[in-house]
Write a structure and sequence with these properties.
Strand content: under 5%
Radius of gyration: 19 Å
Number of strands: 0
């Protein structure tokens, strides 16, 4: 399947999931997982899970929420 057909399939799956009422983030994840299984191999799903876990546990992503928490604590304590 060429790129146009695969992109139509991807957006068709995505829109179908959205019309079913599934939230956007979950719809994008499910659509991406389906496309990986169709075009690559099911073994790549394990690699996707490892990559997602390593990105989610990165310390850099803690900076913004902790900064917001610090600001809200400073605001409520009226320093």
């Amino acid at each position: 399947m060429e790129w146009f057909g695969s992109s139509v399939l991807l957006f068709g799956i995505l829109l179908g999931l959205l019309f079913l009422g599934i939230p956007v983030a979950f719809s994008m994840g499910i659509a991406a997982s389906i496309m990986v299984v169709l075009f690559l191999s099911p073994n790549m799903l394990v690699q996707m899970a490892r990559l997602g876990f390593s990105v989610a546990t990165n310390d850099i992503f803690l900076v913004a929420p902790l900064f917001i928490l610090m600001r809200s604590e400073e605001h409520t304590s009226e320093l």
